[in-house]
Amino acid sequence: MNFLLIKIPRNNEYTYEQCLALISGLVSKENKKSFIPFIKSSKNNYSLNILSIKQMIYFVVGTEKENITHLKNQILAQYSKADLVEMENFGEFGDIDYEVVDVAELNLSSKKYLPIKTMVSFQDVDPISSILSGMSRSPDPAALFWLQIIISPAGKGWQKSAAARINSINNSEIKSQGMQTESSMIQEKLKYHGFKSNIRIITKSNIDTKSILNAFSIFSEPGGNSFKLKYPNFLTKRKLINAVKNHENYGTTNLLNTLELATIWHLPSGTINIPNIKWGKRLQLDAPEDLPIATENTTDEEKRDTTYIGKVDFKNNKHIFGIKSKDRLRHVYIVGKTGTGKSSFIDNMAIEDIRKGHGVAVLDPHGDAITHIMDYIPKNRINDVCYFNPADTEYEYPLNILEVENENQKELVVSGIIAIFYKLYHDSWGPRLEHILRNVLFTLVYSENQTLPDIVKILHDKKYRQKVLEQIDDPQIHQFWNKEFDSMTEKFMNEAISPILNKVGQFATSPIIRRIISHPKSKVKISELMDNKKIFLVDLSQGKIGEDNATLLGSMLITQIQIAAMNRAFQNEEDRVPFYLYVDE
């Protein structure tokens, strides 16, 4: 038997009427299948459960595997906002030790054609609240309270006996008020389809089943029917427990119609104030009509043009869906709290791009993603991998962010570095600091073989500064140094450059960073990686190199990738090779 855990939003406005229609739909299914009505089978069984385990209350239904799709459709037809979780066995809620549970049957106390009290007779009270209240009362985390109802559509035998009783009353010479009331009750019960029902109560951890009977006393109908507890004897207890475990018919069979079943078992509305019900937290919506999905008719070209990222499951319609390449050009921003799968999502997208032969860059501030991705790189792409790990002291990766390939990149480089330092030090940022730093950076990019640590040198060493200025023809830069900077008093100059020296010096003195940024020539050109569809894996584990160092290197690399991408403006659009950048938080 397969099972469905049903979760609905807490603020729902559902009533018992949805459950009434749901159970009635099960009758229509069995009517279609019953071409040999005299053969009885557990395939006709449905299991309705309310389970309180580990101080959480679950609503679960079950049926045989061939009926599960029909059951799903019936549930979603009535509870459109329901979240269904399919389970292959009941043990997914945790191990239930059937050796130590107490079990009892709940049976009708009178003739089966007499009704219990139904929702029609209740005014502003939902009777299921008394059951749920009893379930949530135990403070013991190991407590178990399980209401199990096994149902299957009944034949017409009960209707014949009910009709015979009505005829007997009608033919009686003396009709008391009680007899007339009984006749009316029977006629009301005959209005709905009947189900053979086995009702069990399973408990553990000092829960008195007799106290549970009090919760079901609310269904007692004066002049009609009520429930009574029946305990198995020593010989039958094992069989009853096996029937409970396997969700099978066994023991005394009751006759309840759809209205009576919907009164005893229905999903709770938002008016029920029970704290530990497993409510649904997701609002499910239908997928857009133009969502790229994988079907049997999807061509190989369409598959190559789509990055498949997940599965949509709405009202029993399951499809693998993805993002088209043209849509990815608009970028993807992934938001979610810790542990929801953001990093795994990034990993899977990057791995699929690698398998399709695309160029990929992954910047990982933790290091785990890089290790995971490397395990999935195909053999034919191993030589395409460029692995950057600044914590590896045995291998150098020179990276000069001031290096430019053409004149058009110089202003982009300066703007990018300013943005990096502003991101790192925006709390202590000021217009004077930015003005001086911008002119320093322009001076360095307009001369040859300069690196980021040279910011300190050009501010401190006047002779070096003059040597650099000899390579530059820009009059604006000369005016800044000769007219503005040199005219500062020593005290004012120290105050002006100290914030810059403090910020740049922090990285220039770090052995890890200095080893990378002190070389005038970068070992690898980002533009070549992008144009040749290479795999650029960057391990910026903060636990190995520190948070500040990881932030600086990550920002520098992103800036270089951005500059290389913007430099493609000089290429025709059809000549631009796609390259995908993944940046984890």
Automatic annotation (TrEMBL):
Pfam families attached to this UniProt entry: DUF8128 (PF26449), DUF87 (PF01935)
Boundaries of every DUF8128 domain copy: 9-279
Q: Where is the Helicase HerA central domain?
A: 326-548
Q: Coiled-coil annotation: which residues?
A: none
Q: Which PANTHER family match?
A: AAA+ ATPASE DOMAIN-CONTAINING PROTEIN (PTHR30121:SF11), UNCHARACTERIZED PROTEIN YJGR-RELATED (PTHR30121)
Identify this protein by name.
Answer: Uncharacterized protein
